[in-house]
Amino acid sequence: MLKSIRNRLILLYTCSTGLILTAVIIFVAVITNEQLLRSQIDSFRNNFITINQNVRGSQDISNLWMAEMETSNYIIIHIEDNGIPFQFRGSWQAPTKREVLVNKIKELAGKDNINTNIRPVSRNEIQSKVYEIKGNKNEKYLGEVFIVPIGKGFRSVVALQYISGNKASVLKQRFLLILLDLLGITAFFFVSRFMVSKSLKPVEESRRRQTEFIAAASHELKSPLAVIRANASALILEPERTEHFTKGIDKECKRLAALIEDMLLLASADARSWRIKKEILDMDTLLLEVYDLFYPYCKEQGKELELKVPDDILPKVEGDGERIKQILAVLIDNAVTYTVEKDSILLSGYSKKNRLFLEVEDHGAGISENNKKEIFERFYREDKSRKDKTHYGLGLSIAKELTILHGGNIEVKDTKGGGATFLVSLPIYKKE
Fold first, then answer.
1. Which of 133, 163, 193 marks a domain boundary?
2. What pLDDT, on a 0 to 100 scale, did the predictor assign at position 36?
3. Cα 419 to Cα 90, 268, 273, distances in angstroms
4. Which end of the chain is more exposed for a tag (fewer CB within 10 A), N or C?
5. Distance (Å, whole) CA 325 – CA 290
C-alpha cells in the first residue's frame, strides 16, 4: 500500500513540477522570440532609413551600393521611378522570387491606401508601416513601402528583409530548450523520489512499530489469558481448591488490566490526545514526596533508596505533578528490578543552563551501548527471555512519552562504577 502511495506521489510531484517547468520554458521561448522579432524590426527600420536617405538625396542610385546593401543585410530593394522599375536584378536569390514578394508588399500597402503607381497628391512623403509576410516556402520577411515626390515625378521604394535566415539557430535554441525541459523533469523525478521517500519514512517507521507493537501485545496478552484459562479449567476439576485458583485468576486479571491501561496510555500518546494538567511545581517537595512514597517499597525489596538535592531551592517547573511522579516511579521501579539485594538507588535533582535535571541512579548490571537507544521502545526488555512476569517493557516508553509531553527529554548513561543512570531534563519555569 505504501509503495503504491509512494509511486503515486512521485508521479504527481513530477508531473506538476514538470508542467510548471514546461510552462516557464514556453513562456521564456515566446518572450525570446518576441524580443528577437523586435530586434529584427529595429534592424530593418534602420536599414530602411538608410535606403530612404539615399533615394531621397540622389537622382542616380548606384547599383553597386544597392548590391552591397542587399548582400550584407539579406535585403531586397525594389525602386521605381514614376512606376517604372530600376534595371537592378538583385545581388542574391531569396527562396521566393523577388517579384512575388514585392507584389505581396504592394498589395498590403494598397489596403492601407498606398499606391506605388500613383504620384502623391501632396508634396509630402508617404511611408507605410512594417509588414510581415511569408514566402512560398513559408519563410518570413519584413517589408515596407516609401514614396517620395521628385520634381514633377515620384519615386517609390519597396524593401524587404529576410528574417528566416537564422532558422538553424532558432531550431538549435528550441532543441536546447526541449533538452533543458527533459533534463529538468528528470531532475524533478529524482528530487521527488528522494523527498517522497524521506517524507514517508516516518510513516513506514510508524507502521513498522505498530506491527511490532501489535505482535508484542498479542504475545503479552496470551500469557495471562492462558493462566486464567488454566485456572478456570482447574476449578472444574478440583473444586475443593477454589480459593487458590480464584486468587490466581484475580492476580492475572490485575496484570492484564495494568497492561491494557499502559497500552491505552501509549495509544493516547500516539493519537496526541494525552493531556496534562499544568501547574507550577515545587520540585523539592515533589522529590521528597516520591522519596517518602518509594522508600518503604525499596526497603521491602532489600534496596536502599537515597535522596540528594542541593542546598539551594530547586527552580520551579510548569507541569503535571502526578505525571512527573509517574515518570520517577517507572525509573525507580526499573532500578529496583535490575539491581540485586542491598544495592542503593539514588534519586537526585539539580539545575543547569535553564534546565532541571532529575536522575535515578542504580548500580545494577547496566545497559549495553547497543541497547541504550532501544530500551525506550515498546515491549523492549534487556531480558529477552521475558521471564519477568511483573514487567511488560512499557514503563520506559510511557516515561519517555510523558517527558516529551512536558517539553523535556530522557536518556540513559552509565553509572560510574557500574549500573545505569536515567536522566530526565525539564524546562525551568520562567515567570513572564
1. 163
2. 81
3. 103, 32, 35
4. C
5. 7
